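Bench log. Compound arrived from synthesis this morning; before running ITC I wanted a structural hypothesis for how fe (ii) ion sits in the protein. Inputs:
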Amino acid sequence: MMTAPAELTLVGDEEAQQAFDELIERDQRIEPRDWMPDAYRKTLIRQISQHGHSEIIGMQPEGNWITRAPSLKRKAILMAKVQDEAGHGLYLYSAAQTLGISREEMMQQLISGKAKYSSIFNYTTPTWADMGAIGWLVDGAAICNQVPLCRASYGPYGRAMVRICKEESFHQRQGFEILLELMAGTEAQREMAQAAVNRWYWPALMMFGPPDDESPNSAQSMAWKIKRFSNDELRQRFVGMLVPQAEVMGVTLPDPNLKWNEERQAYDMSPIDWTEFHEVLAGRGPANHERLRRRREAHEAGAWVREAAAEYARKQAERAEGKVA
Ligand SMILES: [Fe+2]
Ligand SMILES: [Fe+2]
């Protein structure tokens, strides 16, 4: 019968789908060579590459302060932190490559403006205290988001996250420590620290994404065990972590409605102003243009390094084949 091959393929896919579903059900890992549904692959490519782009673009607001850090010690710490973010980008790009997209394609998507990255990195960093607020709040939010991703169902992603999370906790502590020291300083230093916390608090809460009832893709990602907790659950957990730390430092979280709710065993908070988030997402944030311009320039300026590396690899391969003495 003419339809036999199609039917056979269908049976094969159904079996493969079943095997995939069972792996997910048993909380086991999907590995690059395993069969996976197209939509799962596409979702992961999008999520992991966006995550990688965020690490790479995220180097800019802080890289900007390396030469101006107030002491040699702070300079060394900040440099190490920014370098870690480059490493995170590389782990993530490598994880995305196992799904069949090339590094070149991802880079093109980023510099052409087609790919998204976390809009938090489109805000500017006018003072040294912003380094503290970014570490404490932005890396802090990243940790809340990323710790559950260590158990993501896709093996290479989960394993990359384990390494990343270890470094993120150092990032958060260094931010906390910058703010702590400023808060123990002069009146002007305390004001600078508080102003930076005011600037970064709401954008950091927005990093968890839209509220659950407006986040249509979340349910599928949770069913696939890529995502383990909803946006609102993670946001709530983050605020719960910040409150006692803010008390230790003596900074005020800029939300007059922030209050412990005994019944819910969670903090009540003001609604988030999402119009700002959508503006930044639409490319109208304070530094969108600048971030992409600098990334594009760095990519072009680095062309000779990529060419030299490719040429070196080619020669090594030739040598291994015995073509060149
Ligand atoms: Fe990172
Ligand atoms: Fe970080």
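What the model suggests: The domain at 13-273 is CATH 1.20.1260.10 (Ferritin). DSSP finds 13 helices and two strands in the chain.
ITC booked for Thursday regardless.
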